[in-house]
Amino acid sequence: MSDAPTTEPCDGCGDPTTDALARTLRLSVDRANIDTQRLCPDCFADWIRRYQDRMADRDGDGGDSEIIID
User: Fold this and answer.
1) Which domain holds residue 38?
2) Whether the Cβ atoms of residue 10 and residue 40 lie closer than 8 Å to each other
3) Residue 18 domain-assigned?
4) What domain of life (predicted)?
5) Does residue 62 lie within any of the structural domains?
6) Global pTM exceeds 0.90
7) Residue 68 lies in a domain
8) In Å, how far from its chain's centre is CA 8?
9) What is the pLDDT of residues 15-54, one digit of tens each?
């Protein structure tokens, strides 16, 4: 077995990304895997920004949410 790092494409942009730099996002619902993405650092940062924007309390009422983050 080789110890060389593998290079696979980023699921966001398609650029090759080494294992050391790749980030894996897993979406699970009720412990069932729905989606898994391998992202380069730039695409991962974009994903985090979109996640933060969507999860932000935009109306500022601090109301209860139906979304549970585990």
Assistant:
1) 7-55
2) yes
3) yes
4) Archaea
5) no
6) no
7) no
8) 16
9) 999 988 899 989 898 989 899 999 999 999 999 999 888 8
Largest CA distance in the chain: 56
Structure tokens at 54: 């969507």
Give pLDDT tens digits for 11-24: 999 999 998 889 99
In one letter, which amino acid is 18? T
The answer to whether 49 touches 35, Cβ cutoff 8 Å, is: no
Q: Judge whether 37 lies within some domain.
A: yes
Using DSSP's 3-state secondary structure scheme, residue 4 falls into: coil
At 10, the pLDDT band (50, 70, 90 cuts) reads very high
> How many structural domains comprise the chain?
1
Task: Give the torsion through C-alpha atoms of 47, 16, 22, 8, to 10 deg.
Answer: 120
Between strands 16-18 and 23-29, the pairing is unpaired
